[in-house]
Amino acid sequence: MPLQDTLGRPLKNLRLSVTDRCNLRCLYCMPEEHYTWLPREDILSFREIGDLVDVFCDLGVDKVRITGGEPLVRRDLPVLIADLARKPRIRDLALTTNGVLLADAAVELKRAGLGRVTVSLDTLRPERFLALCRQDELPRVLLGIEALARAGFARTRIDSVLLQGTNDDEILDLLDFGQQAGAEVRFIEYMDVGGATRWSPDAVLARAEVLRRIEQARGPATPLEAEPGEESAPARRFRLADGTVFGVIASTTTPFCATCDRSRLTADGTWYLCLYARQGIDLKTPLRQNASRAELARAISAGWEARADHGAEERLELRERAPPHARPALEGDPRLEMHTRGG
Ligand code: SAM
Ligand code: SF4
User: Fold this and answer.
1) How far apart are CA 29 and CA 207, in angstroms?
2) Domains of the chain: which residue ranges?
3) Whole-number average pLDDT of the chain
C-alpha cells in the first residue's frame, strides 16, 4: 500500500533545493536588498542528499526536481545529477533554472543524465528583464535555452510568471518564442508565497484572463487531457489551432491542493509538506546523528501520514489577501522564503 497523507494523496514528487543563493533578484521572489542565508555548515553535501533521496524513493518518490535558489550556482551540480540519475526508481529527473548559467552547463548536465529542464523566463525585453530580475542577463538566458536543444534535451519548458501591468503584454510574444525554441510555455499566476513581499491581488493575472487574451488573438484553446503519469501536474494544458501547446498554473485563483503529491527539501535538509507551511521537519539532524535508513523512513512516513496541508486553498479563503510574512519573520526564518523552498 503506497504511503498516503490524511487526504489520500501519495508521496511522489520531491523538489530538492540545492542552494538558497541566487544570481538574480526577481521582484516577485527576492524583492529585498538583504537576506538571511542558511549557514554554510548546514547545507547538505551531495552524499547526504543522495542518502535522503534513497529513503524518499523507498517510500514512493519517483519524480525529483532540482531547484533553488538558482541550482546552477551550486558547485559541481552535475556530480549530484549523475548520482541521482543512477537511481532507477527516479523515473523523472528534472531541473528548474533561471538559465543564466545554462549555456555552459547544458552538455555536462545532459551527459550527467538529467532528463529535462524548465527555464524560468518572464520577459523577452532586455530593459524589462533588468527591471524585473535586476541583473542584465537576458542574453545569457536566451543562449542557455538555445544550448538545451543542441545538447539533446527535449520536452523543455519555459515558465513565465505574469504580473499585471509589468509583463502581461508579452503573453503572445512568449508563446511565439516558446514555439520557435521548441519549448512549451507555462504561464504562472503570481503567488502570495514566502518572500513575495510586494505581492498584491491587483498584480495577479488570473488564468481566465490569460486564456481570454490568448483566445482573442489566436482562436480557441482546447483543453488537453493530462499525459499518463502527469495527472497531478499543476499546469492545465491547452492546444491552439496552429498546434501550439501551452500551460497555465493557476495556484493563486484555482489551487490544486486536492491532488498535490509534492514536498520540498531545503538545502539544509528541512522537509516541507506544503509551499505555504510555516514549519518543516528537520531531517538533517537525524541524518547527521547517523540515524539508520529505517529510522529516517519512519520520520518521513509519520510526517506524510499526518499531512493535512492545503495551503493554497486556505489562502484563497482569506477575505483580505496580502503577503503572508512581514520582513522580520522572513529575516528570522529564511526557510519561509520561496527561494529557499525551491518554488
Ligand atoms: N532560480 C530558479 C528559477 O528561477 O527557475 C529556481 C528557483 S525559483 C524559486 C522556482 C520557480 O518559482 C521559478 O519559476 C519562479 O518563477 C517561481 N516563483 C518565484 N516566486 C514566485 C511567485 N511569487 N509567484 C509565482 N512563481 C514564483
Ligand atoms: Fe528569480 Fe529563481 Fe532567483 Fe527567485 S530563485 S530570484 S525566481 S531566479
Assistant:
1) 20
2) 13-157+259-341
3) 96
62, 143, 133: which is closest to 101 by C-alpha? 143
| Residue 199 confidence (pLDDT) above 80 | yes
Q: Is the pLDDT assigned to residue 247 strictly greater than 80?
A: yes
- Cα 95 to ligand 2 centroid, rounded to whole Å: 13
Task: Tell me what pLDDT residue 172 has.
Answer: 98
Q: pLDDT > 90: what percent of the chain?
A: 89
pLDDT at 327: 87
- pLDDT cut 70: percent of the chain above it: 100
Give dist(CA 121, CA 139) in Å, integer.
Answer: 11
Buried b (16+ CB within 10 A) or exposed e, 312-338: beebeeeeeeebbbeeeebeebbbbbb
Question: Which mutation among 29, 168, 187, 275 tests ligand 1's pocket best, with the greatest number of atoms within 8 A of CB?
Answer: 29
Shortest-distance atom of ligand 1 to CA 67: 6
CB 18 within 8 A of CB 78: no
* pLDDT above 80 for 1: no
Q: Give residue 159 CA to ligand 1 midpoint distance, Å.
A: 8
What is the model's pTM?
Answer: 0.97
pLDDT score for 311 = 87
Which phi and psi angles does 242 have, rounded to 5°? -80, 5
Residues 263 and 81: their CA atoms lie apart, in Å, by: 19
Q: Residue 323 to residues 27, 36, 176, 192, 313: CA-CA distances in angstroms? A: 13, 18, 32, 5, 15
CATH topology assigned to domain 13-157+259-341? TIM Barrel (3.20.20)
Alpha carbon distance 310, 61 (integer Å): 20
